Amino acid sequence: MPEKTYTIGIDARLFGTAQATGVGQYTEELVRHLVKRDTVNQYRVFVTGEASSHFPIYAPNLTKLTVPFRHYTYSEQFWYPAILRQAKLDLIHYTNFNSPIFFTKINSVVTIHDLTLWFFPGRKQTSVFKRLLYRVVIRQACRNARHIIAITEATQRDIVKLLKIDPAKITVVHEAASERYHQLVQPAKLEQLKRKFNITKPYFLYIGQWRSHKNVIRLIRAFALLRRRYQLDYQLVLGSKIDPAYPEVQATIKELNLSDDVVLTGYITDDELPYLYNGAECFVFPSLYEGFGLPPLEAMACGTPVVSANTSCLPEVLGDAAIYFDPLNIEEMAKVMAEVGRNYSLKRELKAKGIKQARLYSFDRMAEETLAVYRRVLR
């Protein structure tokens, strides 16, 4: 008897948007590996007009549908459901919490990546109404869903505690580092990038935004202490777009007379980033809260030693392959950075452990476990 075929929708509206690169990458890799693994079911992928022309996945059982409704809008709540109904779906997977909360006609699965905005709304979300609306939407999205995917056990605990969701309704499905992150042997390309970004010394690397929970100010202060107390002549490379909403980052660099030794790269392309990881003496991740923490795992995949905050999901994801510090303790952060910066055998040990740790995660396994969730909902 032939296997029953279902029509499964994937909400990919965050693909290709500057606001949610992590969710966009998750969605792209999920779709790519789902259609490789599952040739029986039909998939409908919903993308915005700006992203439809460069959504890179094609398969016989994949149909791309362009929708004019952006994420975090009223039209998403009131008009998007009509498109979903017309698609005649058996199940819709919302790959982020922003879903039409009044629409419950189709079985749904929702992925919750983190609850960062619950703890750290950020300076761009200043409206009390918008902060309240976020809490209403994420809570209702979880209540409406037949099943929830959390990307770490730490996120699962937050969902249970803050949103009052039954843990039996949640499955943990880990993400992974993209295959483009691996050890590279192309010194000419790395030297070219060093010249581009004015990197002239061995360097510690940070990749991430400047938002308050990313803890960049304490990292800069720890780096200043590292140079002063431990006499390590390194640079600190902050790999991200310069964010005018957080002027204190550049002000702190100036205050500590670190303008020559803290490198602000600005935008880094996907092709450049693996080289910067590979060239770093150590990757530092001081974040106060993460849902998964992809950058340190990407660094590990590139063979770069990692030191990390001991907060939220990071010990879960990085295991014993990183050295941890209290991110609120600048002296401890500097001490851990110095330990790695000075100790070649420790670097070599962390490199080997990190490569092994990164291999524990794969997008193929993520797709397999996600497909198992779909089957559970549809049976």
UniProtKB/TrEMBL annotation:
The keyword Amino-acid biosynthesis does not apply. Pfam families: Glyco_transf_4 (PF13439), Glycos_transf_1 (PF00534). Signal peptide: none annotated. Residues 22-174 form the Glycosyltransferase subfamily 4-like N-terminal domain. The keyword Transferase applies. Keywords: Transferase. GO terms for biological process: lipopolysaccharide biosynthetic process. Residues 195-356 form the Glycosyl transferase family domain. One of its GO terms (molecular function) is glycosyltransferase activity. This is Glycosyl transferase family 1. It comes from the Bacteria.
